[in-house]
Amino acid sequence: MECQMQIQPITVPYRYDEPDEGLGLGPAALLAAGLVDRLGKAGHQLTAVQAASLADADREEGRTAVNIGKLGASTAGLVVEALRSGPGVLVLAGDDTAAVGVVAGLQQFAGDARLGVVWFDAHGDFNTPDTSFSGILAGMPVAIIAGYAGPHWRGAAGLSTPVRTGRIMLAGVRELDQKEEELLETTSVQIVRADAVRERESFAQAVHEFATAIDLLLLHVDLDVLDPQYVPSSSTPSANGLSIEDSVDAMASVFQTGKVIAVCVSSLNPGGGQRGVRSVKSAATLIEKGLVAWTAIPSTAGN
């Protein structure tokens, strides 16, 4: 099969201290399920898998967000190295906190290019310590990326300039906390609910219009955007989600902008016996089929 493009896979464990349980096992489970071979058979050329890490000596006691940021700095370095060599980047992440490091790497590589994010998720992930009911950091990365919280986290990751909210699209959303939604209403973040994503032509048009003032895109997919029947072991299940087919079509709409330089897929919990087995199968299928439409990365102002 003719090669579509070269891809650098990067794995990022869940946060920095739980790589060997729950969501932390997700990236390894996808690799064990033969994802690299499947993408190769689909026509992509994959380079050797690289893994972000945080050394024990670099961890700071009691500063979880900073440590996540430091892990993000490792991720950012791998992203920059990959893009300088030419491939697009596929990040397999334990949870959504990894995206801060991915954005940092894209920003460091691309310089003044206008960077945007299309974020597929059942949730907004736009909480801050002031709006969050749970305090869970995985519910905050979009707000961190946008500069609404977490300056120490962002600084540790090397993300120097927040992404403008007008360059962020949340797609597939079904659940927003009340205070989170109130905060989002004060921003220019574009929210596309799950039902609207299913309207394929109108969603494609919305993505096209969104991307007109953007040079480079990160496509982020939290697997809980799928309906729980596809990912029954999900740690954050949300009813009335997208089907795999819906998601593949929606991803294709983003790739068709010609501006996607990196893809991040997160939040696979491979545990729970057969529920985990089904979730891994669904995730691998989504990535394999979803990346068919990724045939090139845009030229950039990278150094």
What does this structure look like?
- Helix content is 37%, strand content 16%.
- α10 packs parallel to α11 (274-290).
- The protein has eleven helices and nine strands.
- The chain is globular and about 45 Å long.
- The chain has a single domain (6-293), classed as Ureohydrolase domain (Arginase, Chain A, 3-Layer(aba) Sandwich).
- It has 303 residues and is of the alpha/beta class.
- Strands 1, 2, 3, 4, 5, 6, 7, 8 and 9 form a nine-stranded parallel sheet that branches.
In short:
The chain has helices at residues 26-32, 35-41, 64-85, 99-110, 141-145, 151-157, 178-184, 194-198, 200-211, 244-255, 274-290; strands spanning 6-12, 45-46, 50-51, 88-93, 115-120, 168-173, 190-193, 216-222, 260-266. By secondary structure, the protein is an alpha/beta fold.
Q: What is the fourth-level CATH superfamily? A: Ureohydrolase domain
Strand content: 15-25%
Low-confidence stretches: none
The overall average pLDDT, rounded, is 94
CA distance, first residue to last residue: 32 Å
Shape: globular
Q: Please name the CATH topology.
A: Arginase, Chain A
Structural class: alpha/beta
**How many domains make up the coordinates?**
1
Q: State the CATH class.
A: Alpha Beta
Percent helix range: 25-40%
Secondary structure tally, helices? 11
What letter string, H or E per element, gives the SSE order?
EHHEEHEHEHHEHEHHEHEH
Give the tally of β-strands.
Answer: 9
CATH architectural name: 3-Layer(aba) Sandwich
Biggest sheet details: 9 strands, parallel
How do the helices and strands line up, and which of them pair or pack?
Layout: E1 6-12, H1 26-32, H2 35-41, E2 45-46, E3 50-51, H3 64-85, E4 88-93, H4 99-110, E5 115-120, H5 141-145, H6 151-157, E6 168-173, H7 178-184, E7 190-193, H8 194-198, H9 200-211, E8 216-222, H10 244-255, E9 260-266, H11 274-290
Parallel strand pairs: 1-2, 1-3, 1-4, 4-9, 5-6, 5-8, 6-7, 8-9
Helix pairs in contact: 3-4, 3-6, 9-10, 10-11
